Amino acid sequence: MSRSSAPSNSLLGFRVRLSRATRDFFFIKIQYIVSELPNHPEMKITQVTSKSLLRKFINFPYTLYKNDPVWVPPLKSEVRGQFDSKRNPTLDHCEYSLFILEDDKRVAGRIAAFTDTIALESWKEKIGLFGYYECIDDIRASKLLLDTACEWLKSRGMKEMRGPWSFVSQEWGLVIEGFTPSPTVMAPYNPPYYIEHLTSYGLVKVKDLLVYYMSVSEGYQIPERILTLTDDVVKRYGIKTRRVDMKNYDREVSAVIELSNTSLIDNWGYTSVTREEAEAIARDLKPIIQPKCVVFAEDRDGRPIGFAITIPDINTLIRGMKGSLLPFGWIKLLLGLPKLRNYRLFALGVIPEYHGKGVDSLLYRAIYNELYTPETFLEINYVLEDNAPMNNAINKLNAKPLRRYRIYQKEI
Questions:
Q1: What CATH number has the domain bearing residue 228?
Q2: Do residues 141 and 40 make contact, with C-beta atoms less than 8 angstroms apart?
Q3: How far apart are CA 230 and CA 232, in angstroms?
Q4: Are 351 and 261 in contact (CB under 8 A)?
Q5: Residue 339 to residue 319: CA distance in whole angstroms
Q6: Are 130 and 112 in contact (CB under 8 A)?
Q7: pTM above threshold 0.85
Q8: Alpha-helix residue ranges (DSSP H) falling in 85-223
């Protein structure tokens, strides 16, 4: 039997001969393919128990979204404040834990699991919450994070897991429709693949939150029928609207607390606002709020019966600041605030005895008139999908749909 200078190999029962050059080519190709295969060392969940770990928790989105043109980096000082009980009194009635997921010593995800004693008392159900969810596009990583939150909630006796939620009022939900334009101030944002992350874990829809907008530059005007309706409301009930009185800011905050807890208490997911929480929100908003942005409705006797709060959308100013006002971002913010024409309608409420009487439409009209310029853009964020009176009023105003958030829930 002759000997070959090149090794022979068996392939499907046939003997083949490979030259040295061919053998070297395949060896290099196999090395390349192997090097391109995903390398997943053991992923590790770590509970946040130190300032350095909290820094990693807070900083992760700034890495995850650094090439995402839609995401607006929030100011890190504001984000840190959400986890500081001295600045965020919501933490006074929450038990929580924060977790980060590391893959080969690099942060690959994060999640918070928490219970809220006021929510538990209000909802009368053992519903635990998860939030601050951020993750690379990896189902295994996602499952580890959600498993961690689930087990933490189960250990506290919870029967349901709901989210995404947060320690900040009105920052709930996962974007499922309308990923552009960029989110407005204090509004969540996420990539589309998060939908698969949550649904593949068995989380299902419990409620959708709707977002609408009005754009004067696109030709928006208050419909004539709304002008007629609201004129009639004023005449019939003697209702008038007025701006917030900044000289009596504390008194006005008290009025908002009372109106909120009276008008919104039956809304799904709502929990009573404590005085400390309201004062903290008022304190944080005071530097950017403008008198024209807050409107009260009052009856014939001057009693407040409704309110509307809009916030200037500072996201249009801070998007390029990478989460910091230093060194010169604060100048841009200071000079830019008076010129802002984009707003978020943050809250609107009317006490029950005036429901169905057109007071909500009157407040929308008042806010529109206060904020009107040829460039005004108002985002109504957000409205419960099954709040028929509110959605009907907004549709009659000819506001356009912009975005949809979803709250998920799962039995655990």
A1: 3.40.630.30
A2: no
A3: 5
A4: no
A5: 16
A6: yes
A7: yes
A8: 117-123, 139-155, 193-200
pLDDT in tens, 78-94: 999 999 999 999 999 99
Please indicate, yes or no, if residue 315 is contained in any of the structural domains. Answer: yes
Expressed in percent and rounded to 5, the helix, strand and coil fractions of the chain are 40, 25, 35
- What single-letter amino acid sits at 44? K
Residue written as token pair 């969540």: 188
365 plus 391 within the same structural domain: yes
Strands (E), 50-126: 94-103, 106-116
**How far is it, in rounded angstroms, from Cα 333 to Cα 349?**
30
* Tokens read off for 295: 């409107």
Count of domains forming the chain: 2
Mean pLDDT, residues 8-35: 37
Q: Report residue 216 as tokens.
A: 């004067």
13 occurs within a structural domain? no
Residues 203 and 234 in one domain: no
Domain containing residue 124 = 43-208
Least confident residue range of 57-66, 222-231, 265-274, 386-395: 265-274
Q: What is the dihedral of CA 61, 63, 64, 65, to 10 degrees?
A: 80
Identify the domain boundary among 182, 208, 234: 208
Q: Is 163 left (phi over 0), alpha (psi -120 to 50) or beta?
A: left
Give the CA distances from residue 317 to residues 3, 212, 217, 340, in Å, rounded to whole numbers and listed in that order.
77, 22, 19, 9
